Each structure stands twice: as C-alpha cells, then as structure tokens.
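Final paragraph of the annual report: two paired records, presented back to back.
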Amino acid sequence: MACPVSHSVELNPGLLPLDWLLGTWESDEPGEGCFPTIKPFRYTEMLNFSHVGQPVINFMFNAFHADSKKPLHRECGFIRMQPGTNRVAFIIAQNSGLVEIEEGELTGQQLNLQSQSLARISFAREPHVQQISRVFQLRPDGRLEQTVSMATDNQPLMQHLRTTYRRST
C-alpha cells in the first residue's frame, strides 16, 4: 500500500529542494543486484515519495523479482532536511529486520547518503550489514537513478544495486 500524495496540502517550504523526488517512480528496465555472497539477480521496483504538509517526506520502496514477480525487498520511512542547509536524513525500516539512519547532502538534484546508524533484529541472517551508501540522481532525461552500495561483516563497501526509474505519477 502506497502512502497517498495529498494534492490539497502544500509541500512544506523546507522540503522544496526535494520536490523533484515526489510522486511514484517505476523501474523502466530491470535493475541489477549483485554481491559476492549471493547470485546476481534482476529486479523491478516501485518507489513512492509523498507528503502531508509536514516537514517530512514519506516513502515506500517495493522490489520484485524481474522474472517471477515475487515480492523481494521492502523499505519504508521518512526523509527530513536540516533547516537552512543541504543536509538530508533518511529514516528507514526494511522487511529484513534492518533499521537505519542515512545522512548526506543534496547537491542540485543529486542526493548522496551514508549510513550513520544501523540496528537489526536479534535473529537477523548473517553476514550482517555494517554500512550502506545510496545515491539518488535525477538525470537530464527525467529518469531517476538509484545506486546502493553495501558492506557486511565479511565484505567491504561495494555496489549492490543499481536501477533507473521513470515517473508514473
């Protein structure tokens, strides 16, 4: 279930630098996922960024296996900006039992984030994620690109996911 976009409430002025994210985005081609401890895979994903007028953007990400359409990864949470700066924070809960805070900077229409805090359920599968970095960029062709890098207990930080999206609403 996606968070509804409220058309009757204005975007909080503090979030105007992030207005290019708002709406629903769908992968235009399957994204690619890889990591040394798993088989490479292809996935599709839908992103929804919405607001209700508060100084926060709500988001939900839903990924599916490209061939079987089986649900895969889910993330939901909130995006905040530090007033008067280009500092951005993502507060994220994942269906894998990982909860994270990523912080970074907005430069134009590119958002660079690094994990600041990670917590997980006590019975999370190993190896445990130790670090995440994420880049969102609105490309000149109007597509949104996301790259996610990850480090675990036994692997250094390296690219894990990459896909591009087209705006659907």
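The closing record of the year follows.
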Amino acid sequence: MLITKTFHDVPSKLDNGRPIRIFVVAPVVPNYPQAKFPGVVCFSEIYQVTGPVERFAGQIASQGYVVACPSSYHEFETPDPIPYDTEGTDRGNKYKIEKDVAAYDEDATLSIDLLVSLSNCNGRIAATGMCLGGHLAFRAAFDHRVLSSVCFFATDVHSATLGKGKNDDSLARVQKGDMTGKGELVMIFGKQDTHVPRQGRDLIRKTLEDADVPCSFLEVQAQHAFIRDESSKGRWDAALTRSLFTFMMEVFERTVGRDLGPKVDSGEKVEHVC
C-alpha cells in the first residue's frame, strides 16, 4: 500500500503541557477515503525517531496499519533524531535514566489515545519497538487496549533499571498479574546480545511463564540492534530482520488485523496426540 507521513503535537500533563511529537505513518488506498486500519505504536531506540525507525514503521504501515512513533525524549530535546555517534549514544543513554518511568508510560498512553482518535484507525491496537523501545512496547502491554506487543531486544527489563533512579517495576508488575489476561506478547533477543545476557533472558522468560502471560520467546543468532539498517556497527542482519518482520506481521494480522470479538476461555485442554 501507499503511505503518508505526518505528525501530531500532543500536550503532556507530566511535562507541564509541553507537547510530545508523535509521528504518524499511515496507509492510503486511492478512492477509499473512509478506509480504516488497525493501529501500531512503534517505540524507538535511545536515538528517537531516526531513519531506520521511520523505515521500519513505513514497512508496517504499508501492510495496512496506522503507525504512531512517539518522540521519547521530548522533555529534553526537539523531535529531531539523535545521531548514532558516540556523543549521541551517550546523550540518549543519559536521558534514558533521567526520565521518569511514569513519563514513559504517559507517552504510550498518549500515543494509543491518538491512534484511537484518528478517523482512519479502527481502534484495534498493537505495539512494537526496539532496544529502549522494546522495553516500552513491553510496558505498553499493561494497557488493556494493546492486543499484542512484539518487543525487539528490549533492554533493562531483566535488570529493572529503566528510568530515573534506575528502578523500574516492569517484571514486578508482571509478577503481580498486571499483564495476565491481556494481550499476546513476543520477546525477540539475539543470543550474542551483550545488553541482555542469558541469565537476564531466562529471568524474563520465567517471569512471564510463571504469570501465565501468552508469550512467544525467540532467541536468534544475532547481536544487539541487528534490525537497524544504518549505523548498526556491523550488526545488521537483513535476512533475519525480514524473517522476524514476517513473524511480527503474522501476530499483528491475527490479533489486531481482524475483529475476533471478545476472547472466551473454554477451559478445553490440549489433547496429547502424535
């Protein structure tokens, strides 16, 4: 599908009314001005909405989804992307632990609110993101409106070090049941990712399984940031990215691409057959 790009500046209550810029990439079908599509919130890395993030969002939008990309550091920066150089990396990591977790959550809420308010969105919402954005997509799954979240190499979940004070409650909330009975979750990690070691991945998996969260947990032969098609520092794997993009789209098509009505748990046990 063809796509269009625009943005909305939405006031933030936690930032004294200063707006967060949310970029929107949407499909367009000629001669169908009233077409409606599901929505996806796409959370970025520590560099805000860069070229790779915009292209990733555009790929999703072209499949028939209205994609909202929030500027995560609106408290500190303009909406412009932060460079992928050493100074930009240091700046992004600095902001990551200066921003309150509640402010990250407000960004997600405002992005979802925006999507459901748009005339071309049908109100069925999913989420995705990479790196910092993978963690934010994880937290977005606490919102009952988010029917599925696909999280690429989500950082700081295992260590509970997101946000100001480096003391987030993401896994603690999962243990309390805040994600149970809500949407479907997909966690994707590279086995050579130095940001999320094996022990961290095991902790995330066990916590989700113990809380009975419907989750697919994928560990692939890749490093951190392997889906970034620019300045990846030698880590971009285009073929693997394509495969996992297809996996993500299957989840989105099944969970938000169709209106299945309310979920009803019949209690039926899976039959043990060969």
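The chain is about 30% helix and 25% strand. This concludes the annual technical report; the extension proposal builds directly on these records.
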